[in-house]
Amino acid sequence: MEQQNWFLYIAAFASAFGVALLTTPYVKTIAEKWGAIDYPKRRSLHKEPVPRMGGLAIVFGFFASMALMALFVYEIQTVPFLGFVIGAVIIIILGVLDDIYQLKSRTKLAVQIIAALVIVFTGTRISFAYLPFDFLANDLNAVSIPLTIIWIVGVTNAVNLIDGVDGLAAGVSSICATCLVILCIMAVNPSAVVLTAALAGSCLGFLPRNFSPSEIIMGDTGALFLGFALATTSIMGVFKSYALFSIVIAVLVLALPIFDTLYAMIRRLVRGKPIMQADRGHLHHRLIDSGLSHRSTVILLYGLSALCGIVAILIALRDIRAISVLVVLVVVMCLMVAVYRKRM
């Protein structure tokens, strides 16, 4: 079995965290000079103009860490990782242009598909998976390419859609990335560990200036990059390391953004509206409209995201007793919340 290099993992996290933390003020200045400002509108939850494009600090932190890790991890010097870099650069340029010029949804979707195709044709794809209650491998070769594209584009947009409250997307992404770190450590996949550790570090380095009340928001530059990176690293780590329940584990780790996106799509279809049309019906909007403060909403959603990640890790451990206890705990908590709301 391959030895774990804990010093390398810590270095990946710490370098990304430090660079993101230090570059955020400079990115704020760049955003103001380039006119990447988010002005209050009907769906907005802030009342004053706020610089966008803060996601560049996350990008700087992540790639600074990867440049350092390339000296020690051979897999980072391979074609699949080069494909990830090229795809990420495409997504970053898309995000920067959207933060400045507000691009059309169809244009953004087309560019996202191109970036996903780069990932697929450089060797990273969902090639097989095991599904619940099915003890035979499900050969996905026939649908491998479209499934991978749907996963990457879907998760990319899912993270972008939850970026509606200060600190929400950065915090949830850091929780998702941390869960992926743990899963990749369990699977002894060093290259995937350093990728996800760098992603978690860069998110947390940006979060202090992004948490409510924020000095800067990540914009599409950060949200699209985080979604793209989480989708791709989950393929590299979870789908390639966990045959059993790999789809379930990956979906649970990213459950909050995925659920919110699916709910938004279904809601818009039922109402006869375009699924790409923005509205104020996301989970964070509903919680705030119900009376919760911005911070309380974000912390509650952090907890839900962490809970889903813990369930994914327990499934990967195949600990039936722990899963049973957690399920009972969740049911009891839901009943308590329901009773509390009824009494109120």
Entry keywords:
single chain, 344 residues, mainly alpha, two-stranded antiparallel ribbon, 4 strands, globular
Question: What separation lies between the terminal Cα atoms?
Answer: 55 Å
Average pLDDT over all residues: 84
* Radius of gyration, in angstroms, nearest whole number: 20 Å
Helix tally?
13
* Structure classification: mainly alpha
Question: What best-fitting shape do the alpha-carbon axes yield?
Answer: globular
Helix share bin: 55-70%
Q: Topology as H/E string?
A: HEEHHHEEHHHHHHHHH
Described by its quaternary structure, the protein is single chain
Q: Please count the beta strands (DSSP E, at least 2 residues each).
A: 4
As residue ranges, the low-confidence spans are 130-137
The main β sheet shows up as: 2 strands, antiparallel
Q: Report strand order across the widest sheet.
A: 1-2
**Proportion of residues in β-strands:** under 5%
